[in-house]
Amino acid sequence: MKFFIDTANLEQIKEAQDLGILDGVTTNPSLMAKEGISGNEAINAHYSAICEIVDGDISAEVLSTTYEEMIKEGEELAAIHPNIVVKIPMIKDGIKALKYFTDKGIKTNCTLIFSAGQALLAAKAGATYVSPFLGRLDDISVDGLNLINEIRTIFDNYGYPTQILAASIRHSMHIIDCAKLGADVITSPLAPILSLLNHPLTDKGLAQFIEDSKKMK
Ligand code: G3P
């Protein structure tokens, strides 16, 4: 399973990259705005900076919602770096845009997926990734993990190469459950990734080993 970090914060991206387990980065307009990034020049420079830190797929989301504008914007984003993945919203014009970029050999990530039918349409259009938002479904008392399971079954039934990029991860159990269900990728904030490290018996055991190692010197 690939690990992406879901942030536009360069320090957190560097910290995850330093761990040596990072495969890519996803961003969205909310995450970019949180870092105070605005205007075309600053947006493109920020994506370039992320591409300098991580050698993997970097999702950059279009801000427009019409086919023509998404094509123009997506082509500009794709020109920033070969690792840029054009992130397209799950709307009717978005499906057409996915097909356009697929035919041009440009990687895509279809975002805001909340149903198996949406994932199926995106896969038909050739999306490289679909991003089901499992945390936001859990927030409204709908089982987000069930959606991951449904999409896995459908993609496996027909051998769709589209990768399931489980998004809106809220805690480490989401990551573990996605791994059990066969998600291809999880994209997570830094904290849930780091919390995979933790176990009290590891801390207790290490403290004992350190204490006993003093007797060996
Ligand atoms: O990047 C898309 C998704 O991961 C957003 O997550 O926490 O805003 O629901 P969240």
TrEMBL record:
<dbReference type="GO" id="GO:0005737">
    <property type="term" value="C:cytoplasm"/>
</dbReference>
<dbReference type="GO" id="GO:0006098">
    <property type="term" value="P:pentose-phosphate shunt"/>
</dbReference>
<dbReference type="InterPro" id="IPR013785">
    <property type="entry name" value="Aldolase_TIM"/>
</dbReference>
<keyword id="KW-0704">Schiff base</keyword>
<keyword id="KW-0808">Transferase</keyword>
<dbReference type="GO" id="GO:0004801">
    <property type="term" value="F:transaldolase activity"/>
</dbReference>
<dbReference type="GO" id="GO:0016832">
    <property type="term" value="F:aldehyde-lyase activity"/>
</dbReference>
<dbReference type="GO" id="GO:0042182">
    <property type="term" value="P:ketone catabolic process"/>
</dbReference>
<keyword id="KW-0570">Pentose shunt</keyword>
<dbReference type="InterPro" id="IPR018225">
    <property type="entry name" value="Transaldolase_AS"/>
</dbReference>
<comment type="function">
    <text>Transaldolase is important for the balance of metabolites in the pentose-phosphate pathway.</text>
</comment>
<comment type="similarity">
    <text>Belongs to the transaldolase family. Type 3B subfamily.</text>
</comment>
<keyword id="KW-0963">Cytoplasm</keyword>
<comment type="pathway">
    <text>Carbohydrate degradation; pentose phosphate pathway; D-glyceraldehyde 3-phosphate and beta-D-fructose 6-phosphate from D-ribose 5-phosphate and D-xylulose 5-phosphate (non-oxidative stage): step 2/3.</text>
</comment>
<dbReference type="InterPro" id="IPR033919">
    <property type="entry name" value="TSA/FSA_arc/bac"/>
</dbReference>
<dbReference type="InterPro" id="IPR022999">
    <property type="entry name" value="Transaldolase_3B"/>
</dbReference>
<dbReference type="InterPro" id="IPR004731">
    <property type="entry name" value="Transaldolase_3B/F6P_aldolase"/>
</dbReference>
<feature type="active site" description="Schiff-base intermediate with substrate">
    <location>
        <position position="87"/>
    </location>
</feature>
<protein>
    <recommendedName>
        <fullName>Probable transaldolase</fullName>
        <ecNumber>2.2.1.2</ecNumber>
    </recommendedName>
</protein>
<dbReference type="Pfam" id="PF00923">
    <property type="entry name" value="TAL_FSA"/>
</dbReference>
<dbReference type="GO" id="GO:0005975">
    <property type="term" value="P:carbohydrate metabolic process"/>
</dbReference>
<dbReference type="InterPro" id="IPR001585">
    <property type="entry name" value="TAL/FSA"/>
</dbReference>
